[in-house]
Design a protein that fits this description.
The chain is α/β, with parallel strands linked by helices. Helices cover about 35% and strands about 15% of the residues.
Length: about 475
């Protein structure tokens, strides 16, 4: 009996040794295949991983640079080289993960070498390779999804567009804990808190790669490149979207990127008022100014929220329809518009689309600086949040210089809307001082209630009305 048991144990050990040898051979084959993938044979030098013991490879590049190709190629190389590990691919939404990162023309499935895919389970969001490695598909909209994973590597796509930084701080960062974990981040840049933090590290844990759309010109449509150049070249937004720059503040501008970014939200809070504000263009045509159309709201918390940018370059009928549609979409209670250029024609244009529109015309009696400064102060105090990202509006805000003589349409509409909401009186102190000295309806400057005339413009009390900003 003892002899039989010994023979069986010896056979089990022999089989185990064979299995271990087969795994080792398969691992070596996987490593060999990893360096002969489409990624290694087609990547430009900038798209290959940097040397060194880094933790995060941060790729900041313009659209079309090849971020998806690089992220998919790098992650697969790691998963194929190390059998039995767990990795993650994360994008702003699960649809983004599946359509772009996994099933897209440059995604994981198309980049896999033949014979290396064991199973792709779309329902539970998992890719299993023949060497036992797994790639988990995670939506950045669900910060808790990464909890409990034991990750060696991760690919984070369009990181600057993620709604919740907790997806990284509380979910993925703690989950990257096996072996020598590394992460590749591929994103069109925006100066979010985490992007700024990563770029500010000096300990070698983050390596930054920058690139422009035109680095990949050989693989892009010449017509598309020409259109991108025509639309964005030479603009601040083009520096971000095409050349992958993380934009910094403009000296002298009333708004900074931090004022906007530090209070950005992705979910609309409870609102008590919503206004559609319009800054109409004087002319219509291909080269005319845009009509600024902004939707803003006042929350139950007394703060202001920028909800939508519907600005356009269109005919009066066209922009009026867009404004009225925004009015309905957001269940707004008023449409406000500047009347300086178009006079009563602005109201008539709106009423031609919606005869019953609750409309208020604004006659801008102050200079743009005087109108914009109180709104900029609200941002500085952290009392305004953008619900989502509005690239062209934010570009105007952070580059407009008050004494430049320019008239930024989206910014003007923003100022009209937030002014209409009366957000300057958000605190008890504001309300107290405005009760003592409400603004003059002629020039807008504070006037004591017992004054016989406005000290700023000289209007007598029979020439102007003291605006009742806060109902008693």
């Amino acid at each position: 009996m003892t002899t039989i048991l010994q023979q069986r144990l010896a056979e089990l050990k022999r089989l185990e040794a064979l299995e271990l040898k087969a795994r080792a051979v398969k691992a070596e084959q996987a490593k060999a295949e990893a360096v002969h993938t489409r990624y290694r044979s087609s990547a430009r030098p900038q798209q290959l991983p940097p040397e060194g013991n880094w933790r995060i490879w941060l790729i900041l590049s313009g659209r079309g640079w090849g971020k998806t190709f690089t992220g998919a190629g790098w992650l697969l190389e790691k998963a194929l080289s190390e059998p039995g590990i767990e990795c993650a691919v994360v994008a702003p939404t699960f649809t983004d993960v599946r359509r772009t990162c996994v099933e897209g023309p440059s995604g994981l499935i198309k980049s896999l070498p033949a014979g290396t895919l064991e199973q792709y389970n779309r329902s539970n969001g998992q890719i299993t390779l023949t060497n036992g490695s797994k790639i988990h598909m995670v939506s950045a909209d669900e910060p808790d999804r990464a909890r409990g994973l034991n990750l060696s590597y991760a690919w984070l796509d369009e990181f600057a567009a993620w709604r919740y930084e907790e997806t990284w701080t509380a979910g993925l960062a703690p989950a990257l804990r096996i072996g020598n974990p590394q992460t590749i981040i591929t994103t069109t840049p925006r100066p979010t808190k985490l992007i700024r933090e990563f770029m500010g590290r000096t300990d070698g844990s983050v390596v930054v790669t920058r690139g422009s759309t035109f680095d990949n010109a050989d693989n892009l449509s010449p017509a598309a490149l020409a259109e991108l150049r025509s639309r964005y070249d030479g603009t601040r937004l083009g520096r971000q979207e095409l050349y992958g720059e993380v934009l910094t503040d403009t000296p002298g501008a009333l708004w900074t990127l931090g004022m906007i970014e530090d209070h950005r939200l992705q979910v609309v809070p409870e609102l008590v008022r919503v206004v559609v504000a319009i800054d109409p263009a004087v002319t219509s045509g291909e080269h005319s100014d845009e009509t600024g159309i902004l939707v803003v709201g006042k929350g139950a918390d007394g703060r202001g929220y920028v909800l939508s940018d519907r600005s356009c370059r269109d005919t009066p009928s066209g922009w009026a329809h867009r404004a009225v549609q925004a009015f309905h979409d957001f269940n707004a209670d008023r449409i406000v518009a500047e009347k300086n250029q178009g006079g009563d024609m602005v109201e008539m244009t709106i009423r031609s689309v919606l005869p019953t529109a609750p409309f208020k015309g604004i006659t801008a009696k102050q200079g743009k600086r005087l109108r914009a400064e109180p709104v900029a102060a609200l941002y500085e105090q952290g009392r305004i949040s953008h619900v989502g990202a509005f690239d062209e509006l934010e570009d105007q805000m952070t580059t407009w210089l008050p004494d430049s003589g320019l008239s930024p349409d989206r910014l003007d509409a923003l100022v009209h809307g937030l002014t209409e909401l009366g957000l300057a009186g958000g605190t008890s102190a504001d309300r107290f001082f405005l009760e003592l000295a409400p603004p003059c309806s002629v020039c807008g400057m504070p006037v004591a209630r017992d004054a016989s005339s406005c000290p700023s413009c000289g209007a007598h009390n029979n020439d102007y009305d003291l605006v009742q900003v806060y109902p008693r």
